Please model this.
Amino acid sequence: MTRVKICCIQSIAEAELALQYGAYAIGLVSEMPSGPGVISKEKIREIAQWTPSELKTVLLTAHQDADQLIEQHQFCGTDVIQLVDSQTETTYLKLRRRLKGTELMQVVHIINEDSIKEAIRVSEYVNYILLDSGNPNLTVKELGGTGRTHNWELSKRIVDEVNVPVFLAGGLNPNNVAQAISKVQPFAVDLCSGLRTEGKLMEKEVRKFMDQLK
Model:
């Protein structure tokens, strides 16, 4: 079965719900220029410390400076760093050198054909790629949590081209996830607002979503 990452986790109770329904990973959102689900670094650390080893914890960060990323991760203590904005080769190499054992996930926002080239380029430096529907070129960057789908044809081409596992995000919900998986065939799917009502993670939506995967 395709793996599931439930993002925008707000509390230990929500992490426990994700664990109960067999999620592969949870996303913990630090300060962002826009988008939902932001919690404090103290709350991220609390949830990460509680979470058992079978559920991966993922820190979503908008930082682009290697030293800031390292400091933030060392405080929060997650398993994975999800880089929601672009990074230089130097930053990737410094993270690899300083954070041995920590996995890196690079977000690629699917805008046009250039997104495919970007995914291929960054795949050399990271453990995972996550395909989302933001736009980092706007005055106020959209770096995730838009609730919009994107061109899954481009996403499928990336899955076929890169040699690392690919997460598919962007507007997924219980009603479209089966179609998305059939079209893209990702390693995992990632969602936030598609399982929430007024920001709250809803058990009935999580159950419905997992039933659709089966």
